[in-house]
Amino acid sequence: MAELARPDVVEVGARRGSLVDEAYAALKQAIRDTDFPPGYQGSEQEIAVRLGMSRTPVHEAIIRLQEDGLVRVLSKRGVLICPLAPQDIREIYEVVIAVESMAAELLAGLPEATRATAADELEAATAAMDATLAQGDLPGWAEADELFHRLLVEHCGNGRLRRIAQTVTDQAHRARMLTLKLRATPTGSAQAHRTIIAALRAGDAAEAHRSARGHRVAARDEIVPLIEHIGLRQL
Amino acid sequence: MAELARPDVVEVGARRGSLVDEAYAALKQAIRDTDFPPGYQGSEQEIAVRLGMSRTPVHEAIIRLQEDGLVRVLSKRGVLICPLAPQDIREIYEVVIAVESMAAELLAGLPEATRATAADELEAATAAMDATLAQGDLPGWAEADELFHRLLVEHCGNGRLRRIAQTVTDQAHRARMLTLKLRATPTGSAQAHRTIIAALRAGDAAEAHRSARGHRVAARDEIVPLIEHIGLRQL
DNA sequence: CCCATTTATCTTCCATGGAAGTTTGCATGG
DNA sequence: CCATGCAAACTTCCATGGAAGATAAATGGG
Known about the structure:
Two copies of one chain form a homodimer.
Chain A: H1 19-32, E1 41-42, H2 44-51, H3 55-67, E2 71-74, E3 78-81, H4 86-108, H5 112-134, H6 138-154, H7 159-182, H8 188-202, H9 205-229
Antiparallel strand pairs in A: 1-3, 2-3
Chain A binds a DNA duplex through residues 18-20, 43-45, 53-57, 59-60, 73-79.
């Protein structure tokens, strides 16, 4: 395994971040990209030398990652990159369903100007989905789709909801990258997104909730059985 | 401010917890009980001497508390006990609405035996609410009510949902204790709880969702305006 | 050869000291 | 009296060493 990426030593003019933040960001990224594969078990010392820092900031970053549910520290035995079982994917989707439907509902209840701005951005993200899909650029499509859902919660005006969504999205990222290749090309998503956007523009909170929820329920009912079917114990 | 409570040094036969866990639990409790008042700013060193341990475990416990949203560490200036603005209470209630309605829905979809067990416990908690209220024991009522809602998410089978609910409940605890004295005696809650329980016993997921949601929406629409009205800037 | 026991090695856990940064209070000059 | 510079006192931040515990390896007895 190669040396871990880490933001260049000095960014002139930028706010100086602590080593803990650096370690946290680098580790999170490494886990997302399966640079540390799920189930991998290593020591803080090892990670520290790879990041070129002492054990302390790594230790504290790992505490935060553990709180995020990405790793577990086994007392006196090292840190474990949490593998995800099909049951975990189900749990994550259930949280996403609850959180995003509420976010859509809240956004639909905000002032018209706010809704319009958000809807424009959401529309752009959806357009990007169509464009990338037309070119067969599946990773690009996934990125645009993820952007749509992130924008939805970021504009809902509830920071706690946003943070929860970000946390579970981080957890689900690996599974998402996997299923992207497995399932059929996702042509229906853009249409579902436009239904949500229309409800937001209309300020129809109930319909926004209903359509956002339906979109994620459909995703769960497609993805979870898929993962369970291929008999994957963990990922 | 007196010395902080801390589980007695040795509990024979019990699993030995780390000092970090001790500090985390003690601090969380102290914040809940406003032993550290909201807005209070202190140093890790000070907390360490009160807990009779070194700075390190306190520092790490505070990282976890920060992740929970209970404190913020201001670089080189100490740790701040997060005060809650009315807007925060609103955010918290919105999360609770989303999480608990989903939990009720999930629980209603579980096997009959599981639902029956949960319903029995929920019924007991609701009965305790009636009993305490009849005696004018408001703190006792609050405890029974909190138990009901905790049981609901604990039996829903989704650990992540449970954890999220626990986190926001911890945040809201101070506000909850305050409004308990301000608003009228909450006689309607027990009835709403029984509606939820009936839906759970019937295995009616949609109705469980609807009733659980309605119960928390009503709470939000009562509590949030109340807090905003009395002009409280923070608590 | 197999199993129990001991030993060695690796790990987190915790304490402590020094470095860097922030704030506070005081002295000094106007 | 007020503003300004400066120094002293705190604060977190990070490094490092030792202690306690867990695992794996080695060793000895059957």
